[in-house]
User: What shape does this take?
Amino acid sequence: MDLSQYQQEAFKTAIYPNQGKNLVYATLGLLEEAGEVAEKVGTGRQINNEEVIKELGDVLWYLACCCTEMQVDLKIIYQKSLNKDAPKSVKSLIATLFQATSKVAGKVKKTIRDDKGVLQEAKKIEIIEHLASSMSCLSILSETLNSSLEEVASKNLEKLLDRKDRGKLKGSGDNR
Assistant: This one.
């Protein structure tokens, strides 16, 4: 699946306040989902590839929402991610993913504090770099789990469209 198409289709399933003007919400979701990936791969746990792939899809969805909120094409983030160095072990990838998403949150927080919520170009460029690091981790994690970023995107969109058809986009939990 083309990532630009995924971004457009995924955002159609978004339900949150001030869509198109709410980078904070998308960033908090990105950070939360990165934490859920870490939880699924936690110390001493048997890794269930399908569960982790579902969580990677949720991270990708929020990453796409962050891009939409900043009016940046997800494909550009992916292209930038190809130039990123990323660790190869699952645990190190999770740590790097969490670090990158935390840095996105930090830049968004500073935008609120220092720039009255107006995203300045310099911070936008920094956020894009951290999103690209996150995307790099997603891509490598997908491959490590015998999948691909495209498959993660397709499965995530399939899940979301099914929920949309059933009127179950709102709520919490994987089993809606």
Notes: DSSP finds seven helices and no strands in the chain.
